Amino acid sequence: MLKVSGIHVYYGAIHALKGISFAVEQGELVTLLGANGAGKTTTLKTLSGLLRPERGSVELEGNGLHKVDAHEIVHRGVAHVPEGRKVFPRFTVLENLKIGGYARDNSALAPELDFVFQLFPRLKERQKQYAGTLSGGEQQMLAIGRGLMAKPKLLLLDEPSMGLAPKFVEQILENIRAINKAGVTVLLVEQNAAMALAISHRGYVLETGQVILAGTASELAGNDLVRQAYLGG
Amino acid sequence: MELALEILPQVLLDGIVLGFMYALIALGYTMVYGVLEFINFAHSEIFVLGAFVGVEVLLLLQSAGYLAILHPLIILLLVIVASMVISGFAAMALERVAYRPLLGGPRLVALISAIGASFFLQDGLRLFESLWRNTFYLNYPSLEFLDQTVPLAANLVIPVKSILVIVTALMTLAGLYVFVNRTKLGMAIRAVAQDPDTASLMGVPVNQVIALTFFVGGALGGLAGVLFGIHYSLVNPYTGFIPGMKAFTAAVLGGIGNIPGAMVGGMMLGLLEAFAASYLSLMTDGAFGAEYKDVVAFLVLILILIFRTKGLLGEKVRESKA
User: Fold this and answer.
1) Are B24 and B266 in contact (CB under 8 A)?
2) Which of A159, B57, B243, B276 supports an S-S bond with B293, CB 3.0-4.6 Å?
3) How do residues B64-101 score in pLDDT, each as one tens digit?
4) How far is A226 from chain B (nearest CA, A)?
5) pTM confidence score
6) Is B201–A69 a contact, with Cβ atoms under 8 angstroms apart?
7) Residue B103 to chain A, least CA–CA distance (Å)
8) Which member of A50, A75, A82 has the closest CB to residue B203?
9) C-alpha–C-alpha distance, residues B20 and B301, integer Å
10) Concatenated DSSP letters for A113-129?
11) Contact A71/B187, CB-based, under 8 Å?
12) Could you give the C-alpha distances from B35 to A88, A177, B23, in angstroms and in order?
């Protein structure tokens, strides 16, 4: 479904991605692992159009995305839940969800809204509250829910567990598994490698802008290098 | 004391009229600041452009003999719509030509460009009018029905012109409120004002929304310009400086970037000014006259800003912009 071929991305003079290639199949939940600065967030930003690759291509169902503007990419079926949640603090919960569906007709949003409220009942309770007043965990739920409102074929999740209390981390990852089960293909970036691999089908390991390892989740979880670097021994 | 009470309704009326004009102009500053975090210093010229479009439309109607024939409301509608549309498009063009190419750099660069654009527009108008009418001081042709007054009480005579300003401004502000808070495009503007990158991830075309914001702000400025022209009659290309500065101040007073704040700030400044103009000499026994109105108005503003640095309705400004 998603095919990334040899993308090079620069931040000014910094060569952040040095020819990354990977693929995600329909219905999969795939994780990108890697240390800080390995290029995980840069990869997601390139997929959603916030960054442009100098070379290489990104294809979704055979159509090139690497020259499409960010706001158009949502229309093509890719929703990006950015690092640090980035909910709109001066919007209510409901407004945040509505703008998540900006690319679609307002009248068509009801099924997704139901799905989001069913997944995150707490958002339903707080729908009139300003997003800036929510707790970190609630904001993460909102950010994911907002992404779902676009009715994406592919959902990009950047560090959904960052800065959350352990009980929230488990819940959020469980929610992600449920979203994937409901038919949404997911590309997940996580620091919490153990938990990410526990819910994923496959994974890739990034290091200094390159893919150094690829495999199924259980292969990666059993790999010595992954165990040492990301699973704490 | 008796005199003070007697003129109070009139002073209030003057203040309200002035306040609505400041509010309309201030909205242009504040909306653009909301989406770009930069002060469009050429906005005062967009305001003047509206005043000039208004006077040109009226003069053209007059020379074609339509001024006496057409229904006054149709004339007003023509003048107002023409000013708003042309000022709106001019503001959009300004963004495209003078700001957008520079927004990757420091905000100061765009600010300098805005000051340059301001001079360019002033002298462009001057050149155009000098060639076209041989003078750049233009007088609004008087419209009979606008020169009438409605006596409401012995001490309050309301000119139709003031009613025009109040009614038009109220309708526009209500329309703006609905547009910004109840429509999808308005929501897009508010999203871009909070976080442009994330807004683009939602499918909001950020550049188009910024252009739209300039159009709306410009159109409100153009409306203020034509109302100013109708109310005070004489306009020249440099008329915009003082009202522009005051409206900018009003926007800061209300909390820059905050739409209701611009309305409150504008109204407050207008009222302060009207009160100072009328009561200063009464209160000081003639030692300080109406010419000190701006001193008093700005003194109050400074005091407010000392105690409320974010303005009356100001919110925390975004800490950084990615």
Assistant:
1) yes
2) B276
3) 999 889 999 999 999 999 999 999 999 999 999 999 99
4) 32
5) 0.92
6) no
7) 16
8) A75
9) 17
10) HHHHHHH-HHHHHTTTS
11) no
12) 14, 37, 18
Chains A–B, number of C-beta pairs less than 8 Å apart: 64
Reported confidence tier of residue A108, pLDDT bands at 50, 70, 90: very high
Instruction: Using the structure block, give the residue that is written with the tokens 């526009």.
Output: B172
In chain A, residues with a C-beta closer than 8 Å to the C-beta of B209 are none
CB-based contact B198 A75, cutoff 8 Å: no
Question: A70, exposed or middle or buried, with CB in 10 Å at 0-12, 13-18, 19+?
Answer: buried
Domain count for chain A, please give it: 1
Cα dihedral sign, B234-B239-B242-B245: positive
B310 and chain A: CB distance < 8 Å anywhere? no
Provide ipTM, 2 decimals. 0.93
Closest CA to A182 of A23, A18, A27: A27
Give the torsion through C-alpha atoms of B113, B116, B117, B122, to 10 deg: 170
Given an 8 Å threshold on Cβ–Cβ distance, is B194 in contact with A89? yes
Chain A residues in contact with chain B using a Cβ-Cβ cutoff of 8 Å? 48-50, 69-72, 74-75, 79-80, 82, 86, 88-91, 95, 98-100, 102-103, 106, 146, 150
Chain A interface includes B183 (CB < 8 A): no
Query: What is the domain-level CATH number for residue A28?
Result: 3.40.50.300
Residue with token string 């240390």: A35
Triad A167, A168, A169: Cα angle to 5°: 90
Q: Domain range holding A173?
A: 2-230
What is the per-residue pLDDT across B140-180, written as a single tens digit (0 to 9) for each? 998 888 889 998 888 788 999 999 999 999 999 999 999 99
Q: Which residue of B has its CA nearest to A45?
A: B201
